[in-house]
Amino acid sequence: MAIAATPSADNFNHDLYQLEDTVQDAEGNVYRTVTIGNQTWLAEGLRSTQFQDGSDVRSGVIVKDDEENLLKYGRLYNWHDVADERNLCPEGWRVATDADWKTLERYIGMPEEEVHQEGWRGGEQNLGLQLKEAQADGPFKKVDQSLVNKHNFFARPAGVKWNGLYITQGAYTEFWTASSASENKGIIRTLAYSWWNAHKGEIRRATSEKDYMFTVRCVKI
Predict the structure, then answer these.
(1) pLDDT (tens digit per residue) in 110-132
(2) 54 falls within a domain
(3) Residue 8 covered by a domain
(4) How far apart are CA 193 and CA 164, in angstroms?
(5) SS3 73
(6) For 130, phi and psi rounded to 5 degrees?
(7) What's the total number of domains in the chain?
């Protein structure tokens, strides 16, 4: 049974629900959306359990198997579902590709010489902070508040599922892209949240084994 997000869902979505534009998937899940530059993104993690043709997604777990985390973090998916041509996203949308992320990164200020690099990038401009929603136990009180979640992207530290275990929740969020790097690896983006993490202002572009389960953001076609 699909759970649709409504403004009465929970206090943690109060700021997110100030965004007026929405899109609904075939299951009835409602997502807030945000336009950044010439792109329109989901402003929250995907929650779909079906592809556009109505067939079931094979992954799509809730963080720590706790229903209270569904509307906070969305679901975690493996890359095989992310890249499936049946499409996880609402109609008229797609899972963001590596190129889509690069377009976003350019718009928010990443230097062109860093856009195509692997590893942590955009630190001098604090681009990671610009995409992250403030967390109570993070470094956010010690930084320029005008930078935090500057673009209403509302990235949250959902962590990942790997080898049957939920790990790094509260410390990292990992986003799949729909882009493949090799037969076994896909391209990802990472944001770090811990106050002690030297990369907390950056965005990592890297690759990961396709069986990991990560957060998914869709972009309007």
Answers:
(1) 999 999 999 999 999 999 999 99
(2) yes
(3) no
(4) 23
(5) helix
(6) -65, -20
(7) 1
